[in-house]
Recover the amino acids of this structure.
């Protein structure tokens, strides 16, 4: 299939309440690129990629994400600050307002789907106000063939109106922007924000409910790749921890970089048709595959360019959350279809702002369950509204903002799959070494890559006293040696050169782990509780 296939079928949106015919249906990426530039909504960079600015919001706004409380969700959703309830009547009124707003606009419509495994496929229709938002949907969702489009029946609809501003007191929102899921009407309604990540995260949040509840399949906020022998590796982690970078490996085929399902047939399948990578400090030397993917068809977000269109990837004057989206086929070494089998290694990635966790450590099954439920990392500046500097954070399942069910439900599914598949689980600190944020330095990417490869190749071996050291605070098994990594780097204490400060900080973090886990105590078994740090310091 031509990667920019044009499909000439016209489409009506009257069943959505949109009566005009100013509808651009299934345009190619090239066409949407050209329209965006023609309308002065973006510029072309020197690499050929489209550069746009998402406006007021350059990251997600988690406090403005809602789920409609109805008969489907009322008793199943883990309601709270993450999954905020929204009244069905209020949704209907706001939905009608957004439709009326769009009825005056030229629109861009795309039919696509999520989930590479045909048995789990979700057909999606995306209705966009802006051409570049529709191009993002082209990049990030899976692209149907012309034949598949002939009888395409959308199951879910994304309605995306960045220019529509809600009135909080009237519409029931917190402020003028919103992202709302309605499981009864199968609609993701997004307004008041141009940040494209809300488009894909809306659908993936829906799948994170549908797959476990209706299809007994574990959804995962992770990246994945497969080796030449068919072994699949899974990388969990929030934004900025290295999921995209570490899974995009020239020696292994990329399955996907952000969202996957793990089914009962022990297969791991990608939800997406593209990648959405951070580009802060990106270089061709350190990340050649991602750097090379930034070409015609890719969309750069909130980057700074000079007059010739050359991007300065170190410039964070707009945001630290600079991004690029591109279709998977921009990466040469990909798995087609995006499905892997035989998972053998799982990596929990964390950007430890305290700088006290080992750069890599092996976890027991109980520690793996504890750390999965905890989901420790640091919020990286710019990935969420209001976050201006990294902050230590716990995000259950390494993806709490996108998980509608209670974290222990996902943890129990993962724990069973880990045991059944006999996988090795590793905790990898891609954050700070030699001290906390502001004192130490970020772990060198070449060292992290060497540690990942050593784990994948079996070079770190099974646990023994000669090959591993048990961390005195966190109880994890820290390798004493690793090919390609200086021995002192493997010991976070050794990199500090100040034992008193190191242990004081380590105990501070261990207490934070235990304090965070209190809300899961009544759900977790004694075995899982023992997987956490065992020592207090006051």
């Amino acid at each position: 299939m031509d990667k920019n296939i044009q499909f000439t079928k016209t489409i009506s949106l009257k069943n959505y309440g949109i009566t005009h015919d100013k509808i651009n249906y299934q345009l190619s990426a090239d066409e949407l690129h050209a329209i965006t530039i023609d309308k002065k909504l973006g510029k072309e960079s020197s690499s050929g990629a489209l550069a746009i600015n998402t406006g007021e919001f350059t990251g997600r706004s988690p406090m403005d994400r809602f789920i409609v409380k109805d008969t489907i969700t009322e008793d199943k959703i883990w309601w709270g600050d993450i999954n905020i309830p929204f009244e069905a009547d209020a949704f209907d009124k706001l939905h009608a307002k957004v439709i009326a707003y769009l009825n005056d606009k030229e629109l861009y419509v795309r039919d696509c789907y999520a989930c590479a495994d045909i048995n789990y496929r979700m057909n999606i229709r995306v209705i966009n106000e802006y051409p570049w938002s529709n191009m993002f949907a082209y990049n990030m969702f899976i692209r149907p063939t012309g034949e598949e489009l002939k009888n395409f029946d959308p199951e879910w609809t994304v309605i995306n109106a960045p220019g529509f501003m809600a009135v909080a007191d009237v519409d029931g929102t917190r402020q003028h922007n919103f992202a709302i899921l309605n499981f009864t009407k199968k609609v993701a309604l997004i307004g008041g924000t141009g940040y494209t990540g809300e488009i894909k995260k809306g659908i993936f949040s829906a799948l994170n409910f549908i797959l476990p509840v209706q299809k007994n399949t574990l959804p995962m906020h992770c990246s994945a790749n497969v080796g030449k022998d068919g072994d699949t590796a899974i990388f969990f982690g929030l934004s900025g921890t290295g999921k995209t970078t570490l899974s995009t490996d020239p020696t292994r085929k990329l399955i996907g970089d952000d969202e996957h399902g793990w089914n009962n047939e022990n297969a791991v399948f990608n939800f997406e048709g593209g990648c959405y990578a951070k580009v802060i400090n990106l270089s061709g030397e350190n990340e050649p595959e991602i750097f090379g993917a930034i070409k015609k068809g890719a969309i750069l977000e909130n980057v700074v360019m000079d007059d010739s269109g050359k991007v300065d990837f170190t410039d964070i004057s707009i945001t630290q959350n600079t991004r690029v989206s591109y279709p998977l086929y921009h990466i040469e070494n990909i798995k087609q279809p995006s499905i892997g089998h035989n998972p053998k290694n799982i990596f929990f990635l964390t950007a430890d702002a305290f700088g006290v966790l080992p750069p890599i450590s092996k976890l027991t099954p109980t520690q793996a369950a504890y750390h999965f439920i905890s989901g420790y990392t640091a919020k990286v500046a710019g990935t969420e509204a209001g976050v201006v500097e990294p902050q230590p954070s716990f995000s259950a399942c390494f993806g709490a903002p996108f998980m509608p069910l209670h974290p222990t439900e996902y943890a129990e599914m993962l724990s069973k799959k880990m045991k059944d598949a006999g996988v090795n689980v590793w905790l990898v600190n891609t954050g700070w070494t030699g001290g906390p944020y502001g004192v130490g330095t970020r772990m060198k990417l070449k060292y992290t890559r060497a540690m990942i490869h050593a784990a994948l190749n079996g070079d770190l071996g099974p646990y023994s006293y000669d090959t591993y050291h048990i961390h005195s605070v966190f109880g994890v098994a820290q390798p004493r040696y690793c090919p390609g990594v200086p021995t002192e780097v493997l010991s976070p204490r050794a990199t500090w050169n100040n034992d008193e400060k190191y242990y004081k900080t380590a105990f501070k973090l261990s207490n934070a782990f235990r304090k965070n886990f209190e809300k899961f105590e009544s759900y977790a078994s004694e075995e899982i509780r023992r997987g956490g740090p065992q020592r207090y310091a006051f």
